[in-house]
Amino acid sequence: MVKLRLKRCGRKQRAVYRIVAIDVRSRREGRDLRKVGFYDPIKNQIDLNVPAILYFLEKGAQPTERVQDILKKAEIFKELHFNQTKSN
User: Fold this and answer.
1) Mean pLDDT of residues grouped by 10 in the chain (88 residues)?
2) Beta-ladder partners of 40
3) Residue 82 has what pLDDT?
4) SS (HEC) of 70-84
5) Which pLDDT does position 66 carry in this prediction?
6) Cα–Cα distance, 77 to 7 (Å, whole number)
7) Rg of the chain over CA atoms, in angstroms?
8) Which residues neighbour 60 within 8 Å (Cβ) at sequence distance 6 or greater?
9) Cα 77 vs. chain centroid, distance in angstroms?
């Protein structure tokens, strides 16, 4: 199973995170399938690759709780719902 989750980067006391699609069995810093976004909690910056995120969500990837909050702020789930109704 694939999850969308945060992968820690940056230095000590100055963490930034990549949002990655990764196999559930991998560890946090393990090898990811694809980088789909970036999140900086200190500057509150979010950079997302929306087509890649929608692709993984349509294939059944499950976002973690924190990634789900980030995606809700960016209104990704509205686009996902729009794409599903458009294709049906």
Assistant:
1) 92 94 84 93 94 92 94 83 63
2) 45
3) 63
4) HHHHCCHHHHHHHHH
5) 94
6) 21
7) 13
8) 1, 2
9) 12
- What is this structure's pTM? 0.82
**Backbone CA torsion sign across 15, 69, 2, 37:** negative
Model pLDDT, residue 30: 81
What does the pLDDT read at residue 88? Answer: 58
Residue environment code for 43-82, b if the CB has 16+ CB neighbours within 10 A, otherwise e: eeeeebeeebbbebbeeebebeeebeebbeebebeebbee
How is residue 81 written in tokens?
């719902």
Rounded Cα gap, residues 74 and 17, in angstroms = 16
Element (H, E) at 59: none
